[in-house]
Structures are given as structure tokens and as C-alpha cells.
Specification:
Number of strands: 20
Radius of gyration: 26 Å
CATH superfamily of the largest domain: Ribosomal Protein L25, Chain P
Number of domains: 3
Order of helices and strands: HEHEEHHHEHEEEEEEEEEEEEEEEEH
Distance between the termini: 48 Å
CATH topology of the largest domain: Ribosomal Protein L25, Chain P
CATH class of the largest domain: Mainly Beta
Strand content: 25-35%
Shape: elongated
Strand order of the largest sheet: 5-18-19-20-16-17-6
Structural class: alpha/beta
Length: 352
């Protein structure tokens, strides 16, 4: 019945080119014969091409249904799913997807397209259009001891460093700021240019600060708070004495941040070709494909961010406001892609 329905419905609907995957190549003579024998006004042309296979995911509807039905993902619009709804919720732009399709083209040979190409297209597009913001995913409290209590300054920060037409926004600064936990180490190794005991670092768009002390948890020994001093003469300017400070880190003001939940999405599978591993493909699911952080802090300019709006969190990656779970009372961000391809080394190891 398919052989009859396919060609006749194409003709009735005035389809000019019927695009099929390679397994329908043998059906083409029958497709043409039925149309020739039916004396129809429109005779579409059937063209076959190779199925698109994308690494680290699957595109088979049968297997995607299994992922949804058995709860491995949270529905067809789960941001890890290779569906239009999933990519839209993840934050992929239509322009990036069209660019990806244009680059891979249409082929006759089966091949596995690297997911990194799609992610590159997304980065390339968002680098041009996404306004910059500062957000801290794993906050570490920093107290600037020589900064006056109760004082608040505002720094004019560009929305895009290469596009002045996108304007700027004001970012408040106060005695207490939050930085990323990874931007402080008690015993930093060589070539670590971030904060550590006795070390200096620049807070982006603001001052140079120097670590003078730290507060640890009595039981775990974990650093809970860092005490610093700031150099007032380095307000968004180089040190007047000419000393070099190589590290620049992002931050948010402790008194002016907004709490946010951030979902760090990664690739759905931890092998490049899960479909080629046999029927039990679910054992290759990446257990770290979703990490949810609930204690994040973002700058105050993100208050009221529209659903689906996309931003670059400086030094971290591209993020969008979730279309389902975010609201005016709760900000939820999905990581679209990190700034760099974190899977490049994984691919290198697999190819050795």
C-alpha cells in the first residue's frame, strides 16, 4: 500500500521532488510505473540520499521513542534530544541549523557527521548575536576588606566587545562579590593565573584584587570564603606602577545578584556511534549528560530575561532561558554549548 500511496499522494499534492533515503531506491521503478499508468497530471521525481547520522546521538524514531517512553529523557523536547523541539529548547538558533545543513550537504554514501560541526555552527552564530553577561555557577564568597561597607559603584560593561551597536549595561560592584570556585586554589600549580594566597587577579571591568586570607570549614577543610584587598587606582585601568597581572576572572556583586538554576547539558551518549553498538544502545547513555546547579548567581541585568533569550556567560559558554521551567520568579538557564569543544580530546583518543 505504501508504494501506491507514496507516489499518488505526492502527485495529488503537486510535489515536484520526493526526497527519500537510500533504502527506497529499489522502489523508484514502481513509483514511476504507477504514475505512468495512472495518467496523472503531475509526475514527481523521486531522489534518494543517504540517511543523516550524527555522532553521540541517535536519529532513529524507534529508538528515540524508547528513550522517551522509558524515561531516559524528559520528553521529546528534552534539550538533549536531536529533535527540532529539543534543539529549540536547548537554544540552538535556526540560522545555525541551516548553516550546518548547508555545510554537510546531501550525500549518497552513509556517513557519520561529527556533532562538533553542529556545535561549531551554533557557537559561530551565537558569537555574533548573543549579548554578554556575567554569571557564577559555583559561587565562592570574596570579601574585599579595604572596600568601604555599604558603598556601591557601577561599571559600564559592553554587551558585546566587538559590536558597539549592541550597547552596554551597568553592573553594580560592592564589598562582597562572588567568583567561581575554580578561580581560587589554595596551592595553585605553575601557569595558574587566577586567584591564590598572595596572588593578584583582575576582576573583569573592575579592580585588581589580592588574596590576603581565607576561611575554611573546620570539619572538611574546604575554603568557604576568601578575603582580599583591592587597588583603588586600577578601576578598569592598568596598575600605575606598571606591574603585570595576567589573570582576569568574572564575578557578580554579592548584594545585587539574582539566584538562578543552571542546567549543564552534554552529549546524550558517551560513544560516537551508539546505533552501531547493537540493540542495547541504552547502556552507552552518558550519565553526565545533565548536571543541574541550583545555587548559581547571575548579574542583576538578567532580571526579567525573556523565555528563550540567549546570552554568553563570560568565560563559561552560551546559555538560554528555559522555555518551560523558567518564570519571573525563578530563572532557569540551559547551557547551549560551552565556549570550546570539550569533546575534542575524547575524539582524538577514540581515533588512536
Amino acid at each position: 500500500m505504501y508504494d501506491f500511496a507514496h507516489c499518488l499522494s505526492d502527485s495529488i499534492e503537486k510535489i515536484t521532488h520526493s526526497i527519500c533515503t537510500l533504502e527506497f531506491e529499489n522502489n523508484r521503478p514502481l513509483y514511476d510505473w504507477i504514475l505512468d499508468q495512472s495518467n496523472v497530471d503531475s509526475h514527481p521525481q523521486q531522489i534518494e540520499f543517504a540517511r543523516l547520522n550524527l555522532s553521540y546521538t541517535i536519529l532513529s524514531k524507534r529508538r528515540l521513542i524508547e528513550l522517551v517512553g522509558k524515561g531516559y529523557v524528559k520528553g521529546w523536547d528534552d534539550p538533549r534530544m536531536p529533535t527540532i523541539a529539543g534543539m529549540r529548547r536547548r537554544g540552538y538558533t535556526p540560522e545555525a541549523i541551516r548553516n550546518f545543513c548547508s555545510r554537510i550537504g546531501v550525500a549518497k554514501n552513509e556517513n557519520l557527521v561529527d556533532m562538533s560541526l553542529l556545535e561549531h555552527c551554533v557557537r559561530e552564530d551565537l558569537n555574533e548575536r548573543a549579548p554578554r553577561r556575567m554569571g557564577v555557577l559555583r559561587p565562592l564568597r570574596v570579601v574585599i576588606d579595604n572596600y568601604p561597607e555599604g558603598k556601591v559603584e557601577e561599571f559600564e560593561c559592553p554587551n558585546h566587545p566587538q559590536n558597539s551597536g549592541m550597547g552596554s549595561r551597568k553592573v553594580p560592584f560592592s564589598r562582597v562579590v562572588y567568583i567561581e570556585q575554580d578561580d581560587f586554589l589554595e596551592n595553585p600549580p605553575r601557569k595558574y593565573y587566577r586567584l591564590g594566597p598572595g596572588r593578584e587577579v583582575r576582576l573583569r571591568y573592575a579592580y585588581i584584587i589580592k588574596c590576603v586570607n581565607m576561611v575554611k570549614d573546620d570539619k572538611t577543610g574546604e575554603v568557604m570564603e576568601v578575603h582580599c584587598t583591592h587597588d583603588p587606582e586600577t578601576r578598569n585601568a592598568p596598575p600605575p606602577d606598571g606591574r603585570k597581572v595576567e589573570g582576569v576572572i568574572h564575578w557578580v556583586s554579592g548584594d545585587h545578584t539574582i539566584p538562578a538554576e543552571v542546567r549543564l547539558y552534554d552529549r546524550l551518549f558517551n560513544v560516537a556511534d551508539p546505533a552501531g553498538q547493537g540493540e542495547d544502545f541504552t547502556k552507552f547513555l552518558n550519565p553526565k549528560s545533565l548536571e543541574t546547579l541550583t545555587s548559581c548567581r547571575v548579574e542583576s541585568s538578567l532580571a526579567g530575561a525573556a523565555l528563550g533569550s540567549r546570552y554568553q556567560f563570560e568565560r563559561l559558554g552560551y546559555f538560554c532561558v528555559d522555555l518551560q521551567d523558567a518564570s519571573t520568579k525563578k530563572l532557569v538557564f540551559n547551557r547551549i554549548v560551552p565556549l570550546r569543544d570539550s569533546w575534542a580530546k575524547v575524539s582524538e583518543k577514540e581515533n588512536r
